Amino acid sequence: MTDFAAAIGLVLVIEGAFYAAAPSLGKFMMRQGLAASDNQLRICGLAALAVGVGIVWLARS
């Protein structure tokens, strides 16, 4: 459970730093996401999931 809490904390740090550094870019990316089709978002989500699993696997081994 400690690792999960640390992971959530890191996500919030990265997201917060991104929006603090470039809020207009964040808004632009949100508009692009709204304009994307469900399949595009699904493929990007699956790709992000695979990359994330790979990073965790490499970091933990």
UniProtKB/TrEMBL annotation:
<keyword id="KW-0812">Transmembrane</keyword>
<protein>
    <submittedName>
        <fullName>Uncharacterized protein YjeT (DUF2065 family)</fullName>
    </submittedName>
</protein>
<keyword id="KW-0472">Membrane</keyword>
<feature type="transmembrane region" description="Helical">
    <location>
        <begin position="40"/>
        <end position="59"/>
    </location>
</feature>
<dbReference type="InterPro" id="IPR019201">
    <property type="entry name" value="DUF2065"/>
</dbReference>
<dbReference type="Pfam" id="PF09838">
    <property type="entry name" value="DUF2065"/>
</dbReference>
<keyword id="KW-1133">Transmembrane helix</keyword>
